[in-house]
Task: structure prediction
Amino acid sequence: MFKALRALCAAALLSCLIGFAGEAVANDHGGGGVSDIVSLEAITTNLASKSGKESRFIQLVIALKLHDPQAAAAITAYMPQIRHDILMVLSSHTGESLQVTAGRETLVDEIRDAVNSVIGAPARTDKKGKRIAAEGPVKQVFFTSFIIQ
Result:
């Protein structure tokens, strides 16, 4: 009986966590289950500045596409660390570098690696010097809003 009560409490806590920090969306397949997309709250921070130039700011809303919808719980549980790591990645870029598509594509890869490093295995370099991406639940990163000022 105690194990069943404990499992029920864990399930209730998990469902509260999913609804709190990450927005798990119902799927469109009629099952009413959890989607493989998690939306993060807006992130606003200052970008790196070139010497002598004014500081620029970025506001960004990100959606994460997951390999497994059940990974949304892990994303939610580590949300403070994930947001911190994304802020660190953003602050290493200049506004100029993010004005071009290639810069934004690099940012997508860096954010995916940052989140996957928190939950899965970090990015690494093989013996030949080739970079191997982090392994984890995040398959794709989408910018649903991207503003640089």
In short: The chain has one domain: 2-148. The mean pLDDT is 81. The first helix runs from residue 2 to 20. Residues 20 and 132 are 32 Å apart (CA to CA).
